[in-house]
Write a sequence for this structure.
């Protein structure tokens, strides 16, 4: 049996392939090797994945994950998989490769991820030929759910939110300076905490202040993660991820400001990955 996974910082979609056909779908918590260690990843696999599949029968794993961008981080993830899947050949790749396969197929283009975090690359139809190094939620992740949440919380803490938005925020969340700083600086998965406010932002997107917050976040994304590619005005920019999917109208509008043509918007690349590995087995 073959196990294919699209892993983000918030959730991971798994597909089990048996005799060439999709056999089972499972969704678990996500993990990022920049944020948690191998033992914690292993614990997630045992608790949330293994009860639903026969781990001893899995022969090959294709895992595409957020944060799997260096040999050291990939080895950390592989170590966790080896303990849970003792009979499997394990392949760990970056989530950008998953996005490229699912979005671009055999055509050249820019593949962009906008979910809890953000990233992009230039894909020539076969390989990723250009990319940027993700700076994470603290220094980068422009346009992502974590970035949007950080901008909202910063405005709240600086008392810059309009009264009507501030009142809605306080009605929905019980927040204090201490609880926010604790969640960001001391508790696990700070990017996931920040991204949890994306729904509130989307629900209030028609408010001029919130719309401007979103627009500025996407301008930063295009500036730092798309305009860096020499052919960014010549090829389409395709998007994957929950933020991209729910904000595709604004992303398209802001893209036009930069002379950028947007292409596909998909929420998750997992189905495209299943097709890709079926065709390239």
């Amino acid at each position: 049996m073959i196990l294919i996974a699209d892993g983000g910082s918030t959730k991971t979609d798994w597909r089990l392939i048996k005799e060439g056909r999709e056999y089972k779908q499972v969704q678990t918590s996500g993990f990022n090797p920049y944020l948690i260690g191998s033992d914690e990843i292993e614990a997630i696999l045992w608790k949330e994945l293994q009860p639903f599949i026969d781990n001893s029968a899995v022969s090959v794993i294709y895992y595409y994950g957020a944060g799997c961008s260096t040999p050291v981080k990939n080895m950390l993830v592989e170590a966790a998989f080896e303990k849970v899947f003792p009979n499997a050949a394990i392949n760990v790749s970056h989530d950008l490769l998953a996005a490229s396969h699912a979005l671009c197929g055999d055509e050249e283009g820019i593949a962009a991820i906008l979910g809890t975090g953000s990233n992009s690359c230039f894909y020539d139809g076969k390989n990723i030929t250009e990319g940027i190094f993700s700076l994470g939620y603290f220094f980068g992740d422009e346009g992502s759910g974590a970035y949007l949440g950080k901008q909202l919380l910063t405005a709240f803490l600086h008392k810059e939110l309009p009264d009507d938005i501030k009142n809605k925020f306080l009605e929905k969340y019980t927040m204090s300076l201490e609880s926010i700083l604790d969640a960001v600086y001391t508790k696990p998965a700070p990017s996931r905490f920040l991204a949890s406010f994306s729904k509130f932002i989307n629900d209030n997107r028609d408010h001029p202040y919130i719309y401007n917050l979103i627009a500025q976040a996407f301008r930063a994304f295009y500036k730092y993660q798309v305009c860096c590619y020499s052919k960014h005005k010549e090829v389409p920019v395709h998007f994957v991820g929950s933020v991209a999917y729910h904000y595709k109208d604004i992303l398209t509008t802001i893209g036009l400001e930069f002379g950028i043509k947007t292409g596909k918007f998909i929420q998750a690349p997992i189905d495209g990955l299943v097709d890709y590995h079926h065709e390239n087995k």
Notes: The longest helix spans residues 208-225. The mean pLDDT is 88. The radius of gyration is 19 Å.
